[in-house]
Amino acid sequence: MPEEKTISPISPQSSGIPLRGIAIGALLSFILNVFDVYATLIVRGSYMTLNFSTPAALFFFFFVVLISGAVAAIRKPLALNKAELVTIYIMLMVACCVPSMGFIPVILPQLVGPTYYATFENQWANLYNKHIPEWIAPADEATARYFFERLPPGVPFPWRAWVLPLMYWYGFFMALSLAMTCAMIILRKQWVERERLAYPLVQVPLDLIRHEESGFIGRSFLSNRLMWLGFAFSFILLSINGLHFYFPEFPKITKATSIRLLDGTIKISFWFSPSWIGFFYFVGLDISASIWFFYLLSSLQRAAFTSFGLKSTERLDLYASEAFTAHQGMGSMIVFVLITLWLARSHLADVFRKAFPGDPTIDDSDEVLSYRQAVIGLITGLGLIGLAMRMAGLPLLGTAMFLFSAFVIFISLTGVVAKGGIPAMRPPLMSTSFVISGAGTGVLGPQGLTALGLTYGWHSEIRCFVMASVANGLKMCEIIKGSKRRLFGAIMIAVLASLIGSTLMLFYLAYTHGGANLNPLFFSRRSVGHGPLDMVRRMLEAPSGPRLDAYFFMAIGGTVMGLLMWARNCFPWWPFSPLGFMISANWKTGHIFVSALAAWFIKSLVLKYGGASVYRKSRTLFMGLILGEVVGAGVWLCIDFLTGHTGSFLTQI
Predict the structure, then answer these.
(1) Any domain includes 650
(2) Which domain range does residue 380 map to?
(3) In the chain, what percentage of residues exceed pLDDT 70?
């Protein structure tokens, strides 16, 4: 069983969500995006908004709590209360979903990149760009050229070329955020109260603002010596490498390596991350064990395929390196979501009875939205997303398949985050590949393939998205006593403030310095050309139909997942969680499995020889590991900003 914290509600005097907390959260969301885009594109240090762990949110929040504590020492009534602090942290987590690989720094370069990098040889203009409507992406060559080569002196910013595309993509992302938020509101009671999931990624902020009998909020956490011991270990470890970038003669600690086994058919990566070990320390032993066990089993499966010459000829997306295991992983995700919804059928029935007949016996007063509003919001959001994709040229079948697979991925990864505390993960394949494999290119046509190419801007990395942040936030907000209805507006405000902050900074940097001089991870031909590089080749090939081998391996993955979930529910002694199998074929699992193994080993020893009491006391040590690496990464980014140093990549947490 996952460990649960005893959470104290806030005092009645501060019930509900004060507007001051929302205002501060909106301002910090804007500032976070401005600084993160600058850090990502100019400083090129540690990534603070890349993964589900949202370290930038925790970095900002840590100093918010410190400042609030200082204010409390001077005049306590002016200090932030728990409701305000929770609201601020939730808004910051949501804000982390927009910069970096989340949305704006990826989508905007990809809107003008195909025009800038189009040549006679690659035929992008004739085969790809001509199918993109002007209200989705600027078609003017000067706008694209100035974006990558900077704006000449005296030339005004091309706002007119960007107005309609920004309206389209802002509306699209707001609709996506609406659908994700409403889906999590509908599932909140099932996951938080009935299944009592662990939510490991928010254990540090929850402990940081736990109930204080006296003094300022955070006093107990900040005065814990074990926490500072873990903090110091992570901070010093990170700082050693930070000093190395400034003084090359200073030693550097290598935290990643790999080995090859079985005549090179298996590559096992070893990544050492104190913060990831900290996150996995808070999950059940069955989950941490399943992560490393199924990853190694999946590696053996790939080695067996290689030895027997079983290799697919199918070309998938840029992250799915092996088609058979990728489809197998997708099949497991589909079955995971279907069984998850089936197990929640009683709760979902209550939701829909409350939503439409308005059953008075069902209480939804503790939710962020009423169930009626949440259901209508989910339907509206999905409808707007589907309409936007149809307007882009994707056929109805492709749109339906894309939405189905996309939300299977979103719900699966959110479940992995909430149950397993996975700080960093990707899906086994993109929805683009799911549609092409499942329907074929023949039914999509050039316009449909181009529309799929545009999805690379918002559905390629999928390492930090609004649904996961909201799910963690809804766990945190249960400590707020009183109405939580303002939180929905706060989430939407955070999304909008983040979009504006990221856009303004990216436009400033691109049109001032030239995108070609910024981080090539976002502005190189390969980075901005994921859509045309993939789709133009498919347009030049003969139209294809559905791939039967894709359906076959999805069926295998789904069957195994169903059996694992059945075993987990029927046999209490079953040692492995199905979550490990679902992410086993993912290359990102190769980065986290050593941390899961280390946490599993340490926690097993602690529980065996020290018992539950020693485990509870040791939790703060591992919280310190997390906080120390987060604060260390943020501090070194600030140092790099002040000194003008670039390229000091220390961690991605």
Answers:
(1) no
(2) 19-643
(3) 97
